[in-house]
Amino acid sequence: MIKNIRPYKNIKPIFGKKVYVDDAAIIIGNVTLGDDVSVWPGAVIRGDMHEIRIGCRTNIQDNATIHGTYEAAATRIGNNVSIGHNAIVHGCTIEDHVLIGMGSIVMDDAVIKEGAMVAAGAVVLAGTVVESQTIY
Question: Model-level pTM?
């Protein structure tokens, strides 16, 4: 077994085709990655509390944390998404063609609509909807 990719409660991560996971990243449990996803050093995708689904051609940059809320909020990330360095994405929905800036935080039940951008360092509060093609 690869140490940085591991099951949690007998649920193993599922990977699409041509997925790159750096040796210094960690992926645990109920996580599905689509085709052509990349996960960079220090990133943690922890599917222990709820499921995490990540679409195709998405990249999770250095030290980003992807997580969900126990029995309440899954994390769904669409296609062609970039999650910046040190971002926290927690129990929310991120639609296609979105940029989540470096060091930003997206909280439970927030929805980032298609084509939107969350600026570096921004905090998207729980339940917030960021409209399509806008900058937050």
Answer: 0.95
